[in-house]
Known about the structure:
This protein is α+β, with helices and mostly antiparallel strands and 174 residues long. Helices cover 45% and strands 25% of the residues.
Amino acid sequence: MQIPRYNLPVIILTFVLTLGILLGGRWAYQEFGVIGPLQKKLAEVPSVKEATVVPKETDTVIQIELGQVESLQTSYREITKLLPKQEGFSLEIRDQRNPYLFRLWRENRLVLEEAAVLGNLTEMQALLEHNLGQSQLDSWLLEADRENLYLQFHAGDHYLYEIIPRYHPNINEP
């Protein structure tokens, strides 16, 4: 009886080539079938100055730099309509904040976070009007829907955008 002899270099070469083709195919699919078209669609949104899609090991980060917008909520909805429905995508909104706008955000963040959890939106609006009444903002806007609170501050060429997720407790939770 004869034992078959394996040609080890051919086996290794075949494995490496197959792995290379599979990884190259996956990269090409991601780059030309997912990332490229997504970046192109996002760049067509009028409020988007720049869109970058960054694949990471656990998810794909979509970084959006917005210009000055009238309604952060409207822009956010336009952007999220274009995103894939599957899990594994996270969205980062970039703005042109300065230290003054960031300080105002930090000083009023607790009011917004409390309203996001408790739902006391009219109280929050009154507190923000009081807190921001003496500020040096050109304008500010707070909008809400079932999922988020949308806050925007504008001062000169600088603007700050924050999206605060609202908490909706499940009635069936213990």
